[in-house]
Amino acid sequence: MIELREIIEGCKRKDRRHQDELYRRYSSMLFGLCLRYTKSREEAEDVLQEGMVKIFKSVGTYSMTNSFEGWMRRIVINTAITHYRKNLKHAYQEDIDDTPQTKYKEVDNYDSDFTQKELLGAINNLPNGYRMVFNMYVVEGYKHKEIAEMLKIDINTSKSQLSRAKKFLQRELEHLSKINM
Amino acid sequence: MNKHGDQFLEMFRDSFGDFAPEVPASVYAGVKKKMFWSNFMGFNIAQLNIWYVLLATSSIALLGWSNLEQNSTGILASGSEYELKEFREPMMASVVSMPIEEVENVAIQFSPNRSTSTKSTISSVASSSKASCAGEEKGVDAGTAVAVDQKGSAEKVDNQVAAVQTAVQDKVIEEKLTSEVELQTNLPVNMGGSIIENSNLVEQLKKKDGPIYLPMHVKKTSTQEQ
After folding, report:
1. Which pLDDT does position B69 carry in this prediction?
2. Cα(A79)–Cα(A38) distance, rounded to whole angstroms?
3. Interchain proximity B15–A116, CB inside 8 Å
4. Is-contact A79 A54, C-beta < 8 A?
5. Do A72 and A147 share a domain, yes or no?
6. Given phi > 0 = left and psi -120 to 50 = alpha, else beta, which region is B219?
7. Contact residues on chain A for B13, CB-CB shorter than 8 A
8. CB B12 to CB A112 under 8 A?
């Protein structure tokens, strides 16, 4: 088994064997990340492809002090954000203030019977802006300030989008649990 | 964030913490393709890229161009049989078809002013005879015929007849020569079997005084040798 350091050094030399090994090890994890940030599988494949090319190209700039996995995740998330921004030009953007404030009954107890696929389906149904903030805050663990900087939005926008994403998902899961019962 | 909210978000965090679905093979094929083009379009000493291809292409093109130029200069300088043929072609459209070995330089003399000089002679003779005839008629009209000596008058008549005959003969010769010249102009000049068509040489020669020597390549034929 090749050491991670050796793989990174090989990728810096643009060695094909080490690039293959890097892809084999991390592509699935990164593809999962892409699936959460995009609306469809095809979009996720495009983002992963672009992200991997960026990783191979900029691996020379990676310093060994930080986590390599974290570094790669960051690159792929940035690629997903770029993809999201590109799509904003073509897609209808729902203004946050125009979204009706609907009251959702908070569910007291969430059973963990929801499968990964069901949860992913619910995330994919989120509006683009909600999905970005929700993933970055909940799964990646970014702060609202960081999210605001990365998405170039206001901090309050980030907070309100997270709140609305949660409510949207609660409604989705409630609807899903009714079907399953 | 309240307890319920934490629990709700925790459910997602746990579900996607180790989320690693299978990646389609086409994704890495696309990555490789993009990497190839990226490497090809960028400059790298160690790898073949567009700069090397451009350098090679331009070198080949330059080499080809310089070779072409050398060949064309060589053609002009060498004067090979083939190229000589090329240069002769406008002048000797049909003569060049014969092999060089069978050709020799021949000087042909033209005398196009022969007819012109003859013409002038004829006209002078004709005018003198006309004058004498006119003088005779004048004398007859004046009624001086009786006073004229019979012998002298007979001689005069003979002279007049001779002058008229000469004039007639000259006129016949003039017509013959003119027709010969016209014949030469209209027909292509035939020189020992090789024909130069569309030539205005005869016209040019007619305008000049004195003999003109025209160097021509004439093929030896069996009839000439005989």
Report:
1. 83
2. 11
3. yes
4. yes
5. no
6. beta
7. 138-139
8. no
Please tell me what DSSP assigns to residue B101: G
Name the DSSP class of B23: P
Residues of B in contact with A32 (CB under 8 A): 16, 19-21
> What is the reported pLDDT for B76?
54
More confident position, B161 or A35: A35
pLDDT at B53: 86
The minimum CA-CA distance between B63 and chain A, rounded to whole Å, is 35
CATH number of the domain at A160, please. Answer: 1.10.10.10
Indicate if A76 and A136 belong to the same structural domain. Answer: no
Which residue range(s) make up the domain with A157?
96-180
Q: With an 8 Å Cβ cutoff, are B19 and A36 in contact?
A: yes
How many CB atoms within 10 Å of residue B110?
A: 19
What whole-number distance in Å separates Cα of residue A137 and Cα of residue A141? Answer: 5
Please name every residue paired with B109 in a beta bridge, in sequence order, or none if there are none: B213
Q: Do A56 and B26 touch (CB under 8 A)?
A: no
CB–CB contact B11 A119 (8 Å): yes
Domain ranges of chain B: 88-225
User: Do residue B8 and residue A170 have CB atoms under 8 angstroms apart?
Assistant: yes
Last residue of a domain, one of A42, A63, A90: A90
pLDDT of residue B214: 56
Any residues with CB less than 8 A from the CB of B31 and at least 6 apart, and which?
A23, A49, A52, A53, A56
- Cα separations (Å) of B12 from A122, A126, A152, B8? 11, 14, 25, 7
Q: What angle do CA A133, A51, B52 make, to 5 degrees?
A: 150
Contacts for A24 with CB less than 8 Å, ≥ 6 apart: none
Out of B21, B34, B39, the one facing A49 most closely (by C-beta) is B34
Chain A residues in contact with B19 by the CB 8 A cut-off are: 29, 32-33, 35-36, 116, 120
Residue with tokens 């014949």: B183
B218 phi/psi in degrees, rounded to 5:
-120, 135
A-B Cβ pairs (cutoff 8 Å, strict): 81
